[in-house]
Amino acid sequence: MAKVFTLAEVSEHNTNKDCWLVIGGKVYDVTKFLEDHPGGDEVLVSSTGKDATDDFEDVGHSASATAMMEEFYIGDINTSTIPTHNKYTPPKQPQYDQDKTSEFIIKLLQFLVPLIILGVAIGIRFYTKSST
C-alpha cells in the first residue's frame, strides 16, 4: 500500500536539492530528474507546494514522459489537504441603460449648442466689425 502524504508534508520539499510534486493525486520525488528536465529545474521547483496537475497537463507531455513518472512515484496525496479551486466569478457589472445614455447626450447638447451658437455669433461680430 502506498504512503499517503499531506500537502503540508509535500510542500516542505520545494528546493532544487529536494523537490516533490503532486500530479494527478500522486506524489513524485523528482529531485533526481531536475537536471534532465527539458524545461529546466525552475519549472518543476515553481510547481511545488500545490497540485501541479494543471501545470503538467497544460504543457502536453508525451506518453513516454508520463510513463517515466512512475519511477519517481513515492506515494499518494491526501486530497482533503489540497485546497479547493474557487472558480473566479467576475463582479457584477451595472446594466447598460440606453435610455440614460440618450438623456445624457440630450443634456450635453442642450448645454453645448447654445454655447457654440454664442461663440459663432461673437466670432462673426468680431470679424465683421474689424473689417469695416
Automatic annotation (TrEMBL):
<keyword id="KW-0479">Metal-binding</keyword>
<dbReference type="GO" id="GO:0046872">
    <property type="term" value="F:metal ion binding"/>
</dbReference>
<dbReference type="GO" id="GO:0020037">
    <property type="term" value="F:heme binding"/>
</dbReference>
<keyword id="KW-0349">Heme</keyword>
<dbReference type="Pfam" id="PF00173">
    <property type="entry name" value="Cyt-b5"/>
</dbReference>
<dbReference type="GO" id="GO:0005789">
    <property type="term" value="C:endoplasmic reticulum membrane"/>
</dbReference>
<keyword id="KW-0249">Electron transport</keyword>
<dbReference type="InterPro" id="IPR036400">
    <property type="entry name" value="Cyt_B5-like_heme/steroid_sf"/>
</dbReference>
<keyword id="KW-0256">Endoplasmic reticulum</keyword>
<feature type="domain" description="Cytochrome b5 heme-binding">
    <location>
        <begin position="2"/>
        <end position="78"/>
    </location>
</feature>
<protein>
    <submittedName>
        <fullName>Cytochrome</fullName>
    </submittedName>
</protein>
<keyword id="KW-0813">Transport</keyword>
<keyword id="KW-0812">Transmembrane</keyword>
<keyword id="KW-0408">Iron</keyword>
<keyword id="KW-0472">Membrane</keyword>
<keyword id="KW-0492">Microsome</keyword>
<keyword id="KW-1133">Transmembrane helix</keyword>
<feature type="transmembrane region" description="Helical">
    <location>
        <begin position="108"/>
        <end position="127"/>
    </location>
</feature>
<dbReference type="InterPro" id="IPR018506">
    <property type="entry name" value="Cyt_B5_heme-BS"/>
</dbReference>
<comment type="similarity">
    <text>Belongs to the cytochrome b5 family.</text>
</comment>
<dbReference type="InterPro" id="IPR001199">
    <property type="entry name" value="Cyt_B5-like_heme/steroid-bd"/>
</dbReference>
<dbReference type="InterPro" id="IPR050668">
    <property type="entry name" value="Cytochrome_b5"/>
</dbReference>
